[in-house]
Specification:
The protein is an alpha/beta fold. It contains nine helices and ten strands. Strand 8, helix 8 and strand 9 form a beta-alpha-beta unit.
C-alpha cells in the first residue's frame, strides 16, 4: 500500500483521514506548519559545532507525551503554515548562514511533504547533511520512502515498557515500533560518522533519563547494545523537568536526581558503549566530551 495523505497512513496511528479536509491524531493537515527556525547552539557538540545546527521546529506531533517540553508547539500546534518553496528557501538560508546541518525537529507527520521539499532544496543547492530528529514512532514504510534524503537519524528511544508508553505518551505499541524503526535507520545510514568533529551521516540515539526510571532506560540500553551494537552513538540526556501535564503524575512530577542520572551512566559504561555524550543534570546544553570504551 502506498503512502498517502488522503487516507493518512504516514505514521503508526493509521488514522486514515483525508488530511486535505480534516486532521487525525496528530492534528496536522496537509500543509506544512512550522513554529520557528534558527541556528541552534545547544544541540550535541557534533551537531551544533561552532556555527550552529539549522533547526526547523514543526508544529504538532503523533505522540502525546505528558511531560513534553515543547508542548505549545507539539500539542497546541503553535506556528504558521509554509509552502514547499518557502521551506526549501528556509533550508537554503540556514545553509547560507553557516549551519552545519538542517535539523528537522518532530517532522514525521509531514514526511510525505518533506520528501518533495528536500528534493527541491537539493536541486536548488542544499549540500549540508539533513537530520531527521524524531521520537521514533515511525512506520517502516515511511522511513524507507526517506532513504537517500536523510543523512543523519537522531531518534529518541523513550520506553522499553508498553505500560509506560501508554500512560505517558498514549502509544501502547511504542516499544516494538521504535525498535523496528531504529533497525531500519541503522540499515539505511549505519553508525554515526564524523568529519573534523561534526556529524556527517549515521544514527545517534537520544535517551532521556526520567524520574524513577519509569521508561526502563536500563533495558533500553541493553536492547540497543544487543541489537545495534556497542558502537552505537548514544546521547544520554539529563534535562528532564516536570512540565505540561506532569503534575497529574506524581511519580514524574519532579526533576531527576544526580543519583538517577549517575545510575544510567553506570549502565551505559558497564555495557561498554564506545561513543556518546553525557549531559549535566538539569541542563539543556551542558554536554561533556565523548566517552570511550574503557
Amino acid at each position: 500500500m502506498s503512502l498517502t495523505l488522503e487516507k493518512c497512513n504516514i505514521c503508526p496511528r493509521l488514522c486514515r483521514v483525508n488530511r486535505y479536509k480534516t486532521t487525525g491524531y496528530c492534528n496536522a493537515g496537509a500543509e506544512i506548519k512550522l513554529n520557528l527556525y534558527q541556528l541552534h547552539f545547544g544541540e550535541e557538540p557534533n551537531l551544533s559545532g561552532s556555527k550552529g545546527s539549522g533547526t526547523i521546529f514543526f508544529s504538532h506531533c503523533n505522540l502525546k507525551c505528558v511531560y513534553c517540553q515543547n508542548f505549545t508547539i507539539s500539542h497546541f500546534g503553535w506556528g504558521r503554515k509554509v509552502t514547499s518553496d518557502e521551506l526549501a528557501d528556509i533550508m537554503l538560508s540556514l545553509q547560507d548562514s553557516g549551519a552545519h546541518n538542517i535539523n528537522l525537529v518532530t517532522p514525521s507527520h509531514y514526511a510525505l511533504q518533506l520528501i518533495d521539499v528536500l528534493k527541491l532544496a537539493r536541486k536548488n543547492g542544499l549540500k549540508i547533511p539533513v537530520i531527521w530528529n524524531t521520537n521514533s514512532y515511525e512506520r517502516i514504510e515511511t522511513l524507507q520512502a526517506l532513504e537517500g534524503l536523510i543523512d543523519i537519524y537522531l531518534p529518541d528511544f523513550r520506553y522499553f515498557d508498553s505500560d509506560a508508553s501508554s500512560k505517558y505518551s498514549d502509544a501502547n505499541d511504542y516499544p516494538e515500533i521504535a525498535q523496528a524503526a531504529l533497525k531500519e535507520m541503522v540499515r539505511q545510514v549505519g553508525h554515526l560518522k564524523e568529519k573534523d568533529g561534526i556529524a556527517q551521516s549515521g544514527v545517534m540515539i537520544r535517551l532521556l533519563v526520567i524520574p524513577k526510571n519509569v521508561n526502563r532506560i536500563d533495558k533500553v540500553m541493553k536492547w540497543i547494545h544487543d541489537n545495534l551494537g556497542p558502537e552505537t552513538f548514544i546521547s544520554l540526556m539529563g534535562q528532564y523537568y516536570p512540565t505540561y501535564r506532569s503534575v497529574a503524575f506524581p511519580e514524574i512530577n519532579r526533576s531527576i536526581t544526580e543519583e538517577e542520572y549517575e545510575s544510567a551512566v553506570k549502565v551505559l559504561t558497564d555495557l561498554g558503549f564506545e561513543n556518546g555524550y553525557i549531559q549535566g543534570v538539569g541542563s539543556n546544553e551542558d554536554w561533556t566530551p565523548k566517552f570511550v570504551k574503557t
